[in-house]
Structure formats: C-alpha cells, structure tokens
Amino acid sequence: MNVDASKLSQKEQVRNSYAEWLDTFDWSYWATLTTRYKLTMPSARRAMNGMFDQLSKAGKASIFYVCEPFDLKEGYHIHALIGANGNLKYQHIIQTWQHVSGNKRKAKEGDTQSTWNRVDLQTYQPKLGARHYVGKYMTKNACDYDILTNEK
User: Fold this and answer.
1) Which positions ≥6 away from 103 have C-beta within 8 Å?
2) Are 55 and 88 in contact (CB under 8 A)?
3) Domains plus CATH for the chain?
4) How far apart are CA 62 and CA 126, in angstroms?
5) pLDDT in tens, 70-125
6) Bridge partner residues of 121 (DSSP)
C-alpha cells in the first residue's frame, strides 16, 4: 500500500524513516522485556548495555531498544530488536535478560518461571511491523532508545 507522504503527520514521517533505517539491519528476534519490580529509565539502559555485553561474547550482535512507560504498572518496559546472526539461541537470550535484569534466583526442580522477569521473545518477521512499532515509541517524549552493535 503506497501512502502519499504529504498526507502523513510529521510524527508518522519520522516513524517511517526510523522504520526504513531499522530495516537495513539483519534482526533475528523481536522482544518485549519487563521486570517484576519498577524499572526506571536509567536501570533499563544499564540492563540493555549489560545484555549487549553478554550477547556480544557469542560473536556479532546488535540490539536496538526503546524504553517507554509501562501502561500496566509503574515504571518502564523495553521493546527490542535483536540481531544475532544465528549464533544466539532463544533460551540464551531469555536467560541473559534474567541475569542482567537482576533475577539471580536459580530455579528449583518443579518451579514455574512465574518468578522470572517477563520476556516475550519472537523470531523477527519483517512483515509484522516490529520496526514500525519501535519507531512509534521513538517519537514519544517519555522514552529512551539506542542502538548497540559490534558489527562494522
């Protein structure tokens, strides 16, 4: 569907430009990351830097994230695009989020993961619009975002 750019608001044009730029990266996963505690914006940034540091140990990695107010409780949550070039598996990313977001508790046999910080992790599918979704939040006032990459 082609849309006349002159009919789009400035925010929509900015969002679409960000989405086009994000489309130039090779993303592997789309994630929504939350915590059981009130996540502050500075804590979210520290957690994402820690996550990038951990994921980079496996080789090439990229993370684009946007931290925005959580509408279901106080604090913030994170939407992220993660590029792993096939070297990072689903469970590794989930466990990395648990570690960097402060969940140091080791599960005991029979425990459910209900005590874990929430991760909604999906294989990235460009046609589903995740890049537009994060682009939308980048135009909000109360957000923080960044791209972390070791690709050249």
Assistant:
1) 36, 115, 116, 117
2) yes
3) 8-105+114-149 (3.30.70.1910)
4) 16
5) 776 678 889 899 988 777 788 889 989 999 998 866 656 555 555 678 888 988 88
6) 31
| Residue 73, token pair as written in the block | 């409780």
CB 38 within 8 A of CB 87: no
pLDDT digits 0-9 by tens, 123-145: 888 777 666 666 666 666 677 88
Please give, one letter per residue, the 3-state secondary structure of the chain: CCCCHHHCCHHHHHHHHHHHHHCCCCCCEEEEECCCCCCCHHHHHHHHHHHHHHHHCCCCCEEEEEEEECCCCCCEEEEEEEECCCCCCHHHHHHHHHHHCCCCCCCCCCCCHHHCCCEEEEECCHHHCHHHHHHHHHCCCCCEEEEEECCC
Q: Report d(CA 4, CA 139) in Å as an integer.
A: 20
Residues 6+ apart with CB under 8 A from 38: 73, 74, 75
For the chain, give the number of residues: 152
pLDDT given for residue 138 in this prediction: 63
pLDDT band at 20 (very low <50, low <70, confident <90, very high): confident
